[in-house]
């Protein structure tokens, strides 16, 4: 489906109005604009591509249904984040371990000339980091996803999770300490063993 | 502070954003389509049957999609390693890397580049033999070996990937995990998928010596 250029150039607010009028292209444009964001959060939170698609599907269905009642003065982006965060938390299926799911091409482009040792150390670090992140609570994992997948500020995260800047800062600090402690041998090896 | 920065970089790398899959809109769009009431019972039954078929197809697709070939191969390698405790029959009993390489190539068409053995130094690598493995999904070869006192298995199979990925790809990023005291590495290289199960999660890098004889001895122990 090729969308009209004009549709792409419309703001979220204009697209929402068009959606309310039942214009199908507007739904598609809204989806295309935000699909990567929604899917990335779902994937990094769940660690499972199939579960992530379920979460993304549920999020967009809630979004399309909720557009009728969405208040135009509210922040659409925050609302969308809240929808996907709630969909993640609602996901009852047992999540599998957090996988890297890095695109192979990107990974190789990032590190085209790694030695065998570099690759081994990288794999070990990635594996341990995944395990540690996967062992965090749902709320802690979501904090990390919003911070590192979406690069949101503490204030933005606080608004999405319905808490304060200070709470976000202290929780993230605790998570960092936990991760540092459990990954200390890699941190120590940064200047030595990591080659 | 420097350590936190390092950690943040790793988190940003590990949790980086991704692109949504192509089929996502179709899933959502199908879900949004309103159901129409069909008064004709014959049509209703036809639709019910079609829906049931679609549901079954979806379940089959989902089972397939959930399967992770690398995880399957890692599980197979771990199983093989556990089976090595005690004597075990192998299809080819050999300590010769060239012989094992030819044997695997003849049966699977995969060229496994093993290091020239024996290695000098403390980390003595000894090949024990090779076997053919068959599962419902794929045929694989297992190469049994020891590094010092620790047992290890390298499992190799034809790559589960598209032609484009095979042609394009060199050595894909390693994946590492542990299960109990077993360290698992898996990766893809050319037209083959590989997994190593190594019997010491405390010093897992020694398992890589089978192919990477040049790893510095000081870096084998973390």
Distance between the terminal alpha carbons of chain B, to the nearest Å?
A: 23 Å
Segments of chain B where pLDDT lies below 50 for 5+ residues?
33-38, 162-169
What's the SSE pattern of chain B? HHHHHEEEHEEE
Mean pLDDT of chain B: 76
Note the run of SSEs of chain A as H and E: HHHHHHHHHHH
Relative strand content of chain A: under 5%
Helix/strand-derived category of chain B reads alpha+beta
Q: Your description of this structure?
A:
The complex is a heterodimer of chains A (195) and B (222). Chain A has helices spanning 5-9, 12-20, 24-46, 49-66, 76-90, 104-110, 116-134, 138-149, 154-161, 165-182, 184-188. Chain A has two domains: 5-90, Rna Polymerase Sigma Factor, Chain: A; 104-191, Arc Repressor Mutant, subunit A. In chain A, 33% of the residues are buried. Chain A is elongated and about 55 Å long. With 195 residues, chain A is mainly alpha-helical. In chain A, helix 4 (49-66) packs across helix 5 (76-90) and helix 5 (76-90) crosses helix 9. Chain B has two domains: 22-66; 69-219, no CATH class. In chain B, 31% of the residues are buried. Chain B has helices spanning 2-14, 24-32, 41-66, 69-83, 97-108, 163-168; strands spanning 125-134, 139-147, 150-158, 175-179, 182-189, 192-198. By secondary structure, chain B is an alpha+beta fold. Classes of the chains: A mainly alpha (195), B alpha+beta (222). At the A-B interface, helix 3, helix 4, helix 6, helix 7 and helix 8 of A face helix 1, helix 2, helix 3 and strand 4 of B.
